[in-house]
Hints:
By secondary structure, the protein is an alpha/beta fold. The protein has one domain (6-131, 170-180, 190-218): Undecaprenyl pyrophosphate synthetase. Helix 1 packs across helix 2. It is globular, with a radius of gyration of 18 Å. The protein has helices at residues 14-22, 25-45, 65-88, 104-117, 133-146, 155-160, 207-218, and strands at residues 6-10, 50-57, 91-96, 123-131, 172-175, 194-197. Strands 3-4-2-1-5-6 form a six-stranded parallel sheet, with helices on both faces.
Amino acid sequence: MTYPSHIAIIMDGNGRWGLKHYNNRNKGHYYGLSAIEEVIKNSIKLKIKYLTLYTFSTENWKRPKEEIDYLFYLLKIFYLKKFSKLKKNNIKINFLGNISQFPKNIRNIILKVKKQTNKNNQIIVNFAFNYGSKLELIRAFNKIIMNKKIKKVNERLISNNLYTNNIPDPEILIRTGGDQRLSNFLLWQLSYAEIFFLKKNWPDFNFNDLKKIIIKFTKIKRNFGSVNE
């Protein structure tokens, strides 16, 4: 039986949930934040070592400015109200993506969170924030090209130049919200992940959903291209 160490989640359906329950997309993002806190707590309970959450994509800049501003506001709220608890619980926080486009106060929060949790090791939570997998790969290729000492490219070299360097690839990808696509998320890293699509929206995702997926995963024979008679 194989038990997962790394779970990645596309947290989709916040806006639809907010419209359905409150006629307000931002309400969905607000309750989605509570679901993030819960999934971190539940991942610790289930002994998951790495959790990667698709928080804000490079394509999300196309959304209305009011919605983007509210997402940044939620990050500040998360930092002010939840950070001390996360730090106390030995949780390490990483951010995957290009933070240079964010307002200075948001960049400062991200840098503080990374620095102050750097030595924690109970679980590593990666927030994919202004993240796009294609741009991540372009960034990695450019770093490799700039290194004149490199004469041959291989898989390990590319992996070592990704945002996820030194992090094992996810064994499981979960996408809530009903859509069945990767949406430019961890395209390299998910090459052998088991994918689970859920119809329920992200704020409704709970411990039982996570536990059921892990149980299903442990029953899958993962041959990675070989034959297991």
